[in-house]
Amino acid sequence: MPRFARLTPDAYPDDEEATREFRRLTADDLLERRSDDAAVVLQTLGMDGGDTDADPDATISVALGESEALAWMRTLSAVRLVLASRLGIQTEDDHQPDDPRFGVYDWIGYRLDGLVAALDRG
Questions:
Q1: pTM of the model
Q2: Which of 8, 1, 35, 33 is nearest to 22 (CA)?
């Protein structure tokens, strides 16, 4: 699927055969790590299936250790890559800040900046 292609990057953009071989050798491990990271995000949000009666409008405070923060960063980056594909963003020039569809994309970028800053301080 094209929207997921950015989750398994081209290692050799000028060599389709080498890229295909690289993906064959690495895609399963990469996608498994992404799945594990997403599970950490859900667990730290308390949304891992344990509490099904939670208020969907409630504010959630999340305390993250370094490994959890890194899992969040990788997961948010992956979601942002998929959103970029769906929105047609290939370069910074493709971003349209006045288009409301870009709001989630921008919000995720803001959260990623916050995680990077928090890890730099830590």
A1: 0.78
A2: 8
- pLDDT by residue for the chain (122 residues), tens only, comes to 565 677 787 888 899 999 889 989 998 899 999 999 999 999 998 765 555 566 778 777 788 999 999 999 999 999 998 888 888 888 888 888 788 888 999 999 999 999 999 999 86
Sequence-distant (6+) residues with CB within 8 A of 98 are none
- Report how far residue 72's alpha carbon sits from residue 39's, in angstroms, rounded to the nearest whole number: 10
Q: Would you say how long the chain is, in residues?
A: 122
